[in-house]
Amino acid sequence: MDNRAIHHAADLIEDADALVVAAGAGMGIDSGLPDFRGPGGFWSAYPALGRRGLEFYEVASPRTFDTDPALAWGFYGHRLALYRHTTPHEGFGILKGWGERMFQGSRVFTSNVDGQFQRAGFSEDAITECHGSIHHLQCSRPCCGDVWLAANFVPSVDDETCTLVNDAPTCRGCGAMARPNIMMFGDSEWIDRRSNGQEAGLRRWLDKATRIVVIELGAGTAIPSVRHFSHELLVNYGARLVRINPKEPAVPTQMDVSIASPALAALRAIESMTLRA
Ligand SMILES: [Zn+2]
Asked: Which is the most buried residue in 73, 164, 222, 255, by most CB within 10 A?
């Protein structure tokens, strides 16, 4: 790892009053969560879907809840159970500690739907989930704008076929099937009210924040929501950026820091530098 970049990142964190953690799919890999990208990535995580030749974008689609609900809920039920039982890696705690040492604290902006920041102890009102959360449900039709916790639903999934074997959750309003409150592929039915409310709170915090450092982790260019957000903070809020990404680490200016590394290794390296200071 580039020692100068690690030093520079530690300096930016030391000088900052406010921390924004901007996290994409790469953040979860060190917790043992599968990365669906790359050739065969999705099918090695879900062999039953590979045998049927089904791609990620076909399964993660609101239409699949109409055409093959047992399969759609088999996939999402498996993920829901997986995320409920995952322990967030140590990097989450490192970030939380940095935020607690800053005058204005920290906020999280993530495209991950897995709820791992909440599990790591970040407070619910400090998190914006721009693609929604698998731990929340909405009506599949949808008949209304309600979003509710999935806590009462315990999926039972046959891993051989990737199908749900117990009853899918239903909408409290109309009795139709409920689905995860996640933005899927080609999804015009996602209810974004919860996500928009989170972002409005984040904007109010940003408007008062000074000397912001953004630590962006595992956010690629393929689904660019998180990168767009980081860049907007540089332009509109004068923030500085630490980008941690093993494959796409380039940063916009020399004032920003590029670290070509998985999330946890980079966070540990920076942490050891800040402790020494
Ligand atoms: Zn409904």
From this structure: 73
Strands (DSSP E) found in 119-268: 127-129, 132-139, 148-149, 157-158, 163-164, 178-182, 212-217, 240-244, 257-259
As a whole number of Å, the end-to-end CA separation of the chain is 19
What is the spatial distance between Cα 109 and Cα 239, in angstroms, rounded to a whole number? 14
Provide the β-strand partners of residue 216: 22, 243
Eight-class DSSP state of 58: H
Q: What's the rounded Cα separation, in Å, for the pair 168 and 32?
A: 27
Q: Please tell me the distance between residue 180's alpha carbon and the centre of ligand 1 in angstroms.
A: 13
Distance 136 CA to ligand 1 centre (A): 14
**CA of 150 relative to ligand 1 center, distance in Å:** 15
Q: How far is the CA of 145 from the centre of ligand 1 (A)?
A: 9
How do residues 191-238 score in pLDDT, each as one tens digit?
Answer: 999 999 999 999 999 999 999 999 999 998 988 999 999 999 999 999
CA pair distance 266, 186, nearest whole angstrom: 35
Distance of CA 178 to the CA centre of its chain: 22
CA angle 263, 223, 44 (to 5 degrees): 70
- Tell me, in angstroms, the distance from the centre of ligand 1 to residue 104's CA: 40
